[in-house]
């Protein structure tokens, strides 16, 4: 169990830095005031045990990130009632379980989904603690990426997910909250999906497999791990998007895709020639920018977005 936890943590920590695209933007982490989040709803999973540092926010790569999240929240982005189609999507940003790319992989995705009539909900899930000060955080990341840092073997999705109990609990609470308020939010309780990015994709996969009562109607894995795993008999339709030059997940095979196909479960896989890791909603000169419209078209094909 300890080995699995260490392996999962190491693999996901790398994504904290890599979640930013290779753009000509400022890569310096600059502390900022906590943004106003008037519509954020506190989930009932409680504070993260033993967490001491307060929640902190910073800007980087022209986007906004949160870290030291100790209390989970869910922020609704509801469509115009005239366009609402009954589908909902929970969005799990990435960041190596140390930060959350709240803008690029959260709010901006939610706004785009809401524009298509989908009720979108950004999940700010609890994170592994990091040093309270920015200098300490940067130093912890430098040490993690130093040549002398220990590199335990990469864990399977099954093993890594054992370390994600708090995050899976947050995802389950998000599904439960949306179902409780389904009438108010014009959501069909049977049409709630989930999409995640990088570490958030790992959380999405874990929620689909080990989330018990969550039972997402469909799932999206955007530049997340594609290690082979055994899907349940009722595995939801799966959408996958990855760039062939992703430094983390492009060279480990596509066992996850093969597993869904072998189980005769619906899966769609987009492998973009370029895009790196963390492209999200950034506008880049690569075809990876088209992943969102491909995802929306896939949802439409499955009846989750109406013409």
Word description of this protein:
The structure is a single chain. The protein is of the alpha/beta class and 307 residues long. It has an eight-stranded mixed β-sheet with strand order 2-5-8-6-9-10-11-12, with helices on both faces. The chain has a four-stranded antiparallel β-sheet with strand order 1-3-4-7. The chain contains nine helices and twelve strands. The N terminus is likely disordered. 47% of the residues are buried.
Question: Which secondary structure elements does this structure contain, and how are they paired or packed?
Answer:
Blueprint: H1 2-18, E1 30-32, E2 41-42, E3 56-60, E4 63-67, E5 73-77, E6 88-92, E7 99-100, H2 103-114, E8 119-124, H3 134-144, H4 157-161, H5 165-180, H6 182-185, E9 192-197, H7 199-210, E10 219-222, E11 238-243, H8 255-262, E12 267-272, H9 291-301
Parallel strand pairs: 6-8, 6-9, 9-10, 10-11, 11-12
Antiparallel strand pairs: 1-3, 2-5, 3-4, 4-7, 5-8
Helix pairs in contact: 5-7
In short:
The chain is of the alpha/beta class. Helices cover 31% and strands 18% of the residues. Strand 9, helix 7 (199-210) and strand 10 (219-222) form a beta-alpha-beta unit.
Kindly provide the radius of gyration, computed on alpha-carbon positions and rounded to a whole number of angstroms.
18 Å
- Count of distinct strands: 12
- The termini sit apart by 47 Å
Q: If strands are numbered along the chain, what order do they take across the biggest sheet?
A: 2-5-8-6-9-10-11-12
- Report the order of strands and helices: HEEEEEEEHEHHHHEHEEHEH
Q: Percent helix among the residues?
A: 25-40%
Can you give the mean pLDDT? 89
Main pleated sheet = 8 strands, mixed
Structural class by SSE content:
alpha/beta
Low-confidence stretches: 1-20
Tally of helical segments: 9
C-alpha geometry: globular
